[in-house]
Amino acid sequence: MSINSIEELNALVARVKKAQRQYASFTQQQVDKIFRAAALAAADARIPLAKMAVAESGMGIVEDKVIKNHFASEYIYNAYKDEKTCGVLSEDDTFGTITIAEPVGIICGIVPTTNPTSTATFKSLISLKTRNAIIFSPHPRAKEATNKAADIVLQAAIAAGAPKDLIGWIDQPSVELSNALMHHPDINLILATGGPGMVKAAYSSGKPAIGVGAGNTPVVIDETADIKRAVASILMSKTFDNGVICASEQSVVVVDSVYDAVRERFAKCGAVILNKKERKAVGGVLLKNGALNAAIVGQSAATIAEIAGIFVPENSKVLIGEVSATDVSEPFAHEKLSPTLAMYRAKDFADAVDKAEQLVAMGGIGHTSCLYTDQDNQPERVAYFGQMMKTARILINTPASQGGIGDLYNFKLAPSLTLGCGSWGGNSISENVGPKHLINKKTVAKRAENMLWHKLPKSIYFRRGSLPIALDEVITDGHKRALIVTDRFLFNNGYADQITSVLKAAGVETEVFFEVEADPTLSVVRKGAELANSFKPDVIIALGGGSPMDAAKIMWVMYEHPETHFEELALRFMDIRKRIYKFPKMGVKA
């Protein structure tokens, strides 16, 4: 049934809602069977879908869209085929917790004209993997290709046992229908990939949304980089599908000492270094009313040159404008989504990173940045670049188009065609979107009483005659300097002498601190700690009741760790295992 009106859209949402409720009860085994069948069908249709996308949108290169379609099916399946997304994800019997996955429900999928079939395939597959339904709002310039990709996935899913209305789409997209879909009360999440306006609309809908920010990827090439590899990688990335991937390089910032070598290498490998007049002509068509000119997006270098009224060889790979300004006044400094590049000369590495920061802040904050350096021998440069760049993806020696989408040049970067840019880019996530972002996790927590503990000294001596035996342990343990902490009454009545006489007879030096009072003050404790610091005992013996015992313990801490603050030691706690102040390790000095 064709969806061309609000009434038809409402009817579609009702059918999809019913299908999703049914699908939400499927087991992991059933879901994985459907996921596999859908991925196989999408991979099999990669070539006709690529041809449809180029023919309808007028953007990109068929062969490269074939690769993107293959990536969106094969790589996505391989990455997530074994991931648990249904029912109980984990169970911890020891701590009494169970984690359960639930689908979010119905997803509104916003698809761009630049990557229509691969994005639709990707979003359909991760929706199926997570027991969600999805309804697509395609871009008007790529609606047939987008919806065909969705239909191929749907038919394969149905054949594998999925409900028949699990994936839907708008046949004749319009602003009115897109807004109606995003604001529909039965839509649970918006998964938006597109221009800034569409992503902003998604976040303004009042619905939970996962959107992506604009890309304006800067590349820094320093003097330690492999120039041949750097230039080859950038050209491979920038010419891929005529530069429409949002992670693709937009500017190259080169350290002065290798600038001429990099420039020469670009020219030798098929890039056109524009002269001043040519640069002005091309710069004049990059933007339209301050925004990216749609007429150049996904076009070849030769076509863009023709639009600008200049001539370049038909096989030219990239048009490079050598510029200096990194602000909005420079057309080449913006995101261009085409085989056009800005090229900057930097005094040194620090200046290059500074320029890259400015370019990111101007138009691509949160998205992607790239550094070419000797990654094995320049770890400090990799670390510095990583620290300074406010981008979610920081690629090293990597073609940005292929590297940014993940799993090609670093297998730990999740494969995705929706790249989150974090709060910097106005997004809710700062990583590559995957199935984990499309499930709700419930935690079942069983009541468990807190563990209790009781600490005791390793030896406790009591009853008459225990003192000599206890002191014998001090002696046999090899202690040489003993500090006795007691009160004035016990000291004056000879109780301390009973200890010191035994220790002195065994060759142990002793010192007695006998100024402890009932309810000892902090000043008294500090005085005892000062004595300990000057005497430097290797054992502390408390003699008496609670006051000498408590005072001796605090003196011990202050002696072992002079930096300790008593106020932090004395702070009350709710749970001894969770107290903010942790007691330092004792027994190092005494």
From TrEMBL:
Pfam families per UniProt: Aldedh, Fe-ADH
Keyword Phosphoprotein included in the entry's annotation: no
Keyword Iron in annotation: yes
InterPro entries cross-referenced by the UniProt entry: ADH_Fe/GldA, Alcohol_dehydrogenase_Fe, Ald_DH/histidinol_DH, Ald_DH_C, Ald_DH_N, Aldehyde_DH_dom, Bifunc_Ald-ADH
Domain Alcohol dehydrogenase iron-type/glycerol dehydrogenase GldA per the UniProt entry, residue ranges: 457-567
Necessary cofactors: Fe(2+)
Top-rank lineage group of the source organism: Bacteria
Annotated GO MF terms: alcohol dehydrogenase (NAD+) activity; metal ion binding; oxidoreductase activity, acting on the aldehyde or oxo group of donors, NAD or NADP as acceptor
EC number(s) from the headed UniProt entry: 1.1.1.1
Residue ranges constituting the Aldehyde dehydrogenase domain according to the UniProt record: 7-399
Assigned keywords, A-Z: Iron, Multifunctional enzyme, Oxidoreductase
Homology family: In the N-terminal section; belongs to the aldehyde dehydrogenase family.
Protein name: alcohol dehydrogenase
